[in-house]
Amino acid sequence: xxxKKVISYQEYSSISELPEKEALLLQEAIAATDASxxxxxxxxxxxxxxxxxxxxxxxxxxxxxxxxxxxxxxxxLLYYVLSTFxxxxxxxxxxxxxKGRKLTETPTRPCGACIQxxxxxxxxxxxxxxxxxxxxxxxxxxxxxNDLIPFSFDNL
Length: 156
Ligand code: THU
Hints:
Shape: globular
Oligomer: single chain
Largest sheet: 7 strands, mixed
Low-confidence stretches: none
Distance between the termini: 27 Å
Helix content: 25-40%
Structural class: alpha+beta
Strand content: 15-25%
Radius of gyration: 15 Å
Bound molecules: tetrahydrodeoxyuridine
């Protein structure tokens, strides 16, 4: 029998079109790119999360002289938030990146390892995490991590 999984997302052409809360979170992710340490890739990724009580936290990618030791913005942020507030659900996460000083033209989508950790965070929080992927001329809003990883590992 043939089966079909359909993923859905919304697309916007500028930050001003986004609902206010999402626009604010994306601004924080863009601001977070300032703290990127990326002398090797020159790709400055910023991520911001809003937790259920409204607080916002942000982080950026950190590279290392020993390449594999570097860490993406999303996992740097999630591991901090989950270890500091283990019982506070995450409501939304925004991601943006700059090449040099310029915001990328197309959305930066999280890597596979980060998506898995985003899914773990969503499962721990017990409610969907909204994902806002920002860029200069396109913004994608995905309503759940499940739409980023429809065939996920699930051994719970
Ligand atoms: N990077 C992130 O921070 N998040 C992603 O989802 C993909 C890649 C970082 C890792 C590295 O510092 C740089 O971007 C280039 O891959």
